[in-house]
Design goal:
Strand order of the largest sheet: 1-76-75-73
Helix content: under 10%
Radius of gyration: 34 Å
Strand content: 35-45%
Length: 1040
């Protein structure tokens, strides 16, 4: 038996086996469980294509024209005439997972050598049968690899430009969503590549094949959107034997061709003269034309008279045909039914249950075994086989992951057989490369160093761990300490991952999304995942409206020092306690120390007590015990005790002692978020049973950008939502609707200011909003849009036509400085900047300079260079160091990576200065991390700076005799000027009693004042003392 997909897993036994994985695990392929029922949401790959198109296509025409791309290339060439690189990038993975891949070739002379390429990450080569991969492409060439062939002489030809991911426009003048640039050629086993000049205008080459009957290796055929192309001189010149839109074709060992031209099957024996062999009238032996959908062919290398054809009806399967006479007559061997369609998934996750989530135009695997002319494979979501003896049998599932031997990542695109070993088969899919070494009985992913993920977002944790999501590959987590490699990733969420956030307060807490839904996890990517949106947030769905974009913008803001927090922590003083465990009836003497959670407690020796079953004893005022059953002592200064029983106990031995806390005791309490420490100093003595209630300064705000909708019944559905309870797991937090942006407005990207007071929201329709006074929002009444007492303000501060606002950044040192990046080909300006973004009427000016006219998906200031702006574009990273100039000068900064779309930039910015004595303290900041749509993650330390103790802290003037409190006098609130560093503020009356005290371990950079509420303090004169960075300054204030 060849290409086995072993038949012993068949019939009822296979269905039972399959059913387990279909019901047991749909997590990693959650994209096939629709989140919404409303018909307005594009499902499957359609939602992704719509989202990408909204950022790339011209907002007026809906097209990406080749003229626009060529114009941008000319601008890039002019920019690089004086190229100087300042940034060097390092890959950050994932190096154990692969992205969308459509082509793979096995070397004709050595089957251990493989060539493949991802649709966004370029060309790779393996010399060990897929065990590891190395990038072999040219970083300056087009990276959208969709087809590969090898000639009889060993030359390699590669087609670029992904047709089946989505094509917008009018044919030869427009491009696929990520345009190709013709054909690449290598004559040295992939060591170097040449762009074939005569093909540079081809925006997509979905199929390329060498004529196996040509010993010179110079005859090559290519499918393009502008005809079927042929060369007989190795790619120097090409002819067009067929016009029209050519999606696919197949070639036999002797050079016979079957070509799909606009749904008609054309046949040729010489590659020049074609006749149609499909029929307008369907008969029992004809091959029908297909007006819509996709057609693929498979010709048996074993016997070229055996030809197979699959046709789709739109995205669903239509039928599969077979010819045993070279295409003269055909028989139907399969057709769509309620029980059979590998190209569709269903709402229930059961592929046998009907017709939904079909995407056969996007994913259509069709292949015939070179070892068995009567055995073929057909796939889309899953893979099925057909054989003359067994008929159709499902061979893979999408559930169970690595624990399921027949798991295969959904969205399969091609199957390639090792011609020298019938047991070896490869499949390329949205999950990269999979390999079977037992004829298809089991599969394993082979993606080591195949860095090809199509990422949307990146979040960097306090310890520089990475979280983010990508197309059809869920959300991944790179912790940097995996035993596999520092850049290996683990799965956190399934479906189409997108934006994500890692908590800095509690690094185990993560926030992430899958298409049309968002989640949180408090187990560092483990099993503790929950969806946490409230019922009011889903109101638009009940009205047939879409809740949000395919990717949902989200923002997390956190602080450990919110001095205006209205939350509190309650502390009750309990006695000291120590259990020595159960006695064994032999041991009589027990010693140790009494335990207490607070090290500042003082012990009261006369309250020291011991119990062990029916035995009890108490100490005298000096801490001594002397009874007929127990003798011993307790030292209150050290909390050390030693007791001896007359008879060895068998009961549990428990020791307790009352404690008290003197005035001025330093306590360590735990915040509600992450149990982070809160430093408190007592202002009065505390005895056992006393309760202290203190402010909980550890706070967070989490924002979700939903679409805004209106109708007569519900005029303000959706919009921007905020919660301060994102860290409270186990229940749905209280959400506040803080903004409605207008009917049909979809947020695209959001960014919050470093102080947490301003949220900037960019939309798919070109509107930029500023939502302010967020720090004042402490309740629903403060925040909700319908509240008469709301404190939050919402302002439309700029419009950029109807273009997509893809990226926003707020200067971490100056909230008034905001930069915006825009999408959509066919425009002149893609970067805008404002230095008065908090003004009533901010102004934004173009900072395009010499930047090529390409979509700019992401943007970032550099915290330590106020004149620097970093822009993530369609072709990688560009940077200017003269932002404030009228025409900034940009340089291309892709050293160490390829020209690939950069969808998000995050700079590692921390206000925590390095402390060599503190565990986990980070000595540097400023590194930049990027999410690329084709090559995973990269980071650079080129922008990194040292943050040694005090390095970024302002100086307090040595001879300053006053603090500068204002207003003074005051009846409600005073403002105390501060700088970065440790801070203590004491407010005393003239009797010396402290009436207010503030302790902060670190004042964040950029925080210029601390506001203190004095409205409840009696009128009079007070002394306020500020102790910061070793300087003590006092001032008298008057409270009225």
């Amino acid at each position: 038996m060849r290409f086995k997909f072993y038949h012993y897993i068949s019939g009822i036994s296979f269905l039972a086996f399959l059913g387990f994985f279909l019901t047991e695990s749909q997590v990693k392929e959650a994209r096939y469980q629709p989140r919404e029922s409303q018909s307005s949401i594009p499902t499957g790959i359609a939602g992704y294509m719509e989202y990408i198109n909204s950022m790339r296509a011209n907002e007026i025409t809906g097209e990406v024209t080749l003229a626009d791309i060529q114009k941008a290339e000319n601008e890039l060439n002019a920019l690089n005439t004086n190229k100087t690189n300042s940034i060097t990038w390092e890959p950050r993975g994932p190096d154990n997972k692969g992205g969308r891949t459509r082509a793979l070739v096995i070397d004709k002379d050595n089957s251990s050598i493989l060539y493949t390429g991802s649709v966004g990450g370029g060309l790779f080569k393996s010399i060990n049968g897929g065990a590891t991969w190395n990038y072999i492409g040219d970083p300056q060439h087009n990276q959208s690899i969709v087809s590969i062939t090898q000639t009889s002489t060993g030359d390699l030809y590669v087609g670029t430009g992904e047709l089946f991911q989505g094509y917008y426009g009018g044919g030869s003048t427009s491009s696929p969503q990520f345009a190709g640039k013709g054909v690449l050629k290598s004559t040295d086993d992939g060591a170097s590549w040449t762009e074939l000049t005569s093909t540079l205008s081809w925006s997509s080459v979905p199929r390329i094949e060498a004529d196996p009957s040509d010993p010179s290796g110079n005859t090559i055929y290519a499918a393009t959107t502008n005809g079927f192309k042929k060369t007989t001189d190795g790619g120097t010149t090409w002819t067009s034997p067929l016009g029209g839109n050519i999606w696919d074709f197949a070639i036999s060992p002797t050079g016979k061709l079957f070509v799909n031209r606009n749904g008609n099957t054309m046949y040729s024996t010489d590659g020049t003269n074609f006749t149609e062999i499909s029929a307008p009238i369907i008969t029992a032996t004809s091959l029908p034309r297909r007006g819509s959908g996709r057609i693929r062919y498979a010709i048996s290398p074993q016997d070229e008279n055996y030809v197979y054809c699959v046709q789709t009806n739109g995205n669903a399967l239509s039928a599969v045909y077979r010819s045993v006479d070279g295409g003269s007559t055909w028989s139907k061997i399969g057709q769509k039914s309620n029980n059979f369609d590998p190209l569709c998934y269903t709402n229930s996750g059961n592929p046998f249950a009907g017709n939904s989530w079909c995407q056969g135009k996007y994913d259509l695997l069709f292949s015939v075994s070179p070892h068995d002319k009567d055995l073929i494979a057909l796939g889309g979501i899953t893979i099925w086989s057909w054989s003359l003896t067994q008929g159709w049998v499902q061979r893979t599932t999408t559930g169970g992951g690595a624990f399921n031997p027949v798991y295969m990542h959904a969205d399969v695109h091609d199957m390639v057989f090792d011609p020298s070993d019938p047991n070896v088969v490869y499949v390329v899919s949205d999950g990269g490369i999979s390999k079977s070494s037992d004829g298809g009985n089991s599969w394993a992913e082979r993606n080591k160093n195949y860095n090809s993920f199509t990422q949307f977002g990146v979040s960097v944790g306090r310890d520089k761990k990475i979280l983010g999501g990508g197309q059809d590959n869920g959300t991944i987590y790179i912790d940097g300490v995996s035993f596999l490699s520092p850049n290996s990733a683990s799965d956190v969420g399934g479906g189409d991952g997108g934006y994500a956030e890692i908590s800095w307060l509690n690094p185990k807490v993560m926030f992430f999304e899958s298409q049309y839904g968002f989640y949180r996890n408090n187990d560092e990517g483990g099993q503790a995942t929950e969806e946490f949106r409230s019922v009011p947030m889903t109101l638009p769905a009940t009205q047939g409206k879409r809740l949000h974009n395919f990717m949902i913008p989200m923002v997390l803001w956190e602080t450990s020092e919110d001095l205006n927090s209205e939350d509190s922590v309650t502390f009750e003083l309990f006695p000291g306690l120590r259990s020595m465990g159960y006695g064994d009836g032999i041991k009589k003497t027990f010693s140790g120390k009494i335990n207490h959670s607070q090290s500042a407690v003082e012990y009261m020796p006369g309250t020291f007590q011991l119990t062990a079953g029916g035995v009890s004893a108490s100490a005298d005022a000096q801490g001594n015990i002397n009874t007929s059953e127990v003798t011993g002592f307790f030292h209150p200064d050290s909390a050390y005790f030693e007791v001896t029983f007359t008879s060895a106990p068998i009961a549990e031995v428990i020791l307790t002692c009352d404690v008290f806390l003197p005035v001025g005791s330093d306590l360590k309490l735990s915040a509600a978020i992450g149990a982070l420490p809160i430093d408190v100093t007592t202002s009065s003595i505390m005895n056992v049973g006393d309760i202290l209630k203190v402010q909980d300064p550890v706070q967070s705000m989490y924002f979700i950008g939903n679409a805004s909708h209106s109708n007569a019944t519900f005029p303000t559905m959706g919009g921007i939502w905020m919660t301060r309870g994102a860290h409270a797991f186990g229940s749905i937090p209280e959400w506040w609707q803080i903004a409605h942006l207008g009917n049909g407005i979809f947020p695209q990207y959001m960014k919050i200011s470093a102080d947490g007071n301003h949220l900037f929201v960019g939309t798919s329709e070109g509107r930029l909003y500023r939502i302010s006074n967020l720090q004042s929002a402490r309740s629903q009444g403060d925040a909700h849009i319908d509240s008469v007492n709301k404190l939050i303000t919402v302002d439309l501060i700029e419009t950029f036509g109807s273009r997509n606002i893809c990226g926003i950044d707020v200067d971490p040192n100056n909230t008034s400085r905001v930069a915006v990046s825009l999408g959509n080909y066919g425009n002149s300006n893609y970067v805008y900047y404002s230095n008065n973004a908090l003004a009533a009427n901010p102004t934004f000016s173009s900072k395009q300079g010499n930047l090529p006219s390409i979509p700019a998906y992401s943007i970032s200031f550099d915290k330590h260079n106020s004149n620097r702006l970093i822009v993530g574009t369609e072709w990688g990273i560009f940077m200017t160091d003269n932002l404030t100039a009228g025409l900034p000068t940009y340089t291309e900064e892709n050293n160490g990576m390829v020209r690939v779309p950069v969808f998000e930039i995050e700079q590692y910015r921390t206000e925590l200065n390095f402390d060599s004595t503190a565990a986990g303290s980070i000595p540097t900041e400023g590194e930049i991390f990027i999410a690329t749509h084709g090559r995973g993650y990269y980071s650079t330390s080129s922008t990194q700076v040292q943050t040694t103790v005090g390095s970024d802290e302002s100086e307090i003037e040595d001879n300053k005799l006053v603090i500068g409190i204002y207003p003074n006098p005051s009846s409600s609130e005073i403002n105390v000027p501060v700088v970065s560093g440790d801070l203590q503020i004491n407010l005393r009356n003239f009797n010396g009693s402290i009436v207010r005290r503030i302790d902060m371990r670190r004042v964040p950079n950029g925080l210029e004042k601390i506001s203190i509420d004095v409205s409840d303090i009696p009128s009079g004169n007070y002394v306020i003392t500020r102790i910061q960075n070793g300087d003590t300054v006092s001032e008298i204030i008057v409270i009225q």
